[in-house]
Amino acid sequence: MKQETILITGANGQIGSVLTQVLREQHGVDSVIPTDIREPKKTTEAPFELLDVLDEERFKQLVLRYDVTQIYHLAAVLSASGEKMPQKAWNINMTSLLNVLELARKFKLKVFFPSSIAVFGLTTPNRMTPQVTITEPSTIYGISKVAGEHWCNYYYEKFGVDVRSMRYPGIIGYRSLPGGGTTDYAVEIYHAAVKREPYSCFLSPNTRLPMMFMDDAIRATIQLMETPIERINIRTSYNLAGMSFTPAEIAKSIQKHLPKFKVSYAPDFRQQIASTWVESIDDSHARADWDWNPKYNLSTMTETMLEKLAEQYNQMEYS
Fold first, then answer.
1. Residues 66, 72, 141, 155: which is the catalytic one?
2. pLDDT, tens digit, 9 for 90 and up, residues 85-95
């Protein structure tokens, strides 16, 4: 069997930085090539390549140089950032995906494309949102993800490209920081709590959204990519669920461990985005097709986040 060589775009981001580490543990350091438009903050001897995902020729050169077999295409402008520069966000999100799909077609590569709950909108069923449903998003990020899902399905149907996708909920982790999403508060709030600082939340206290702990998200991503091809029945994007909660509920879960932690609420433009998203997700197709099952709930996630962040901040204090 040919050795897998995996190229990751957007590898400096919240998911990419963790995914790179986990994939290297599984496949070996030299078999995973992280790329991004900027150098990582921490430099190592391990391979890393600068890549503007709009540069099709540079992309092709890297695929050929490293004999790439898989691409995890994580580079994108996220929901909140995208609303500040919609045309640029559309160009980056769509042109980069088409570059990836064309490379996959020409060189027979397997592709992972992350979609998002941002594909849903006010007309979507709000609770236990089904796999096949109305997708009428109100953000440029969501619009680009809907279009991306259909491009992925098109390349599978037309050219046989093995492209796989899931709709991520909000992702929460301790090993990396978010980068301009509407659910960023759910990471920021833990950092504030561990630093013994009050937190001002940019969403209202009762805004319920689907969320997932980073470890579950990474496990789901790799699990989907490793599932035998005959079990993959959805080529747009799989619904994926972990848990759903509100800012008030996450604050309460933290206060069980840190009773003096204070949270206030000052909703901004991100509240308008969040108000168009759904509250909970039906991911029964993912569970049936590739045995998906989350391990973390709000309580276990809070315990882990507080413990791991406390370790990190203590190390920073004494370094």
1. 141
2. 999 999 999 99
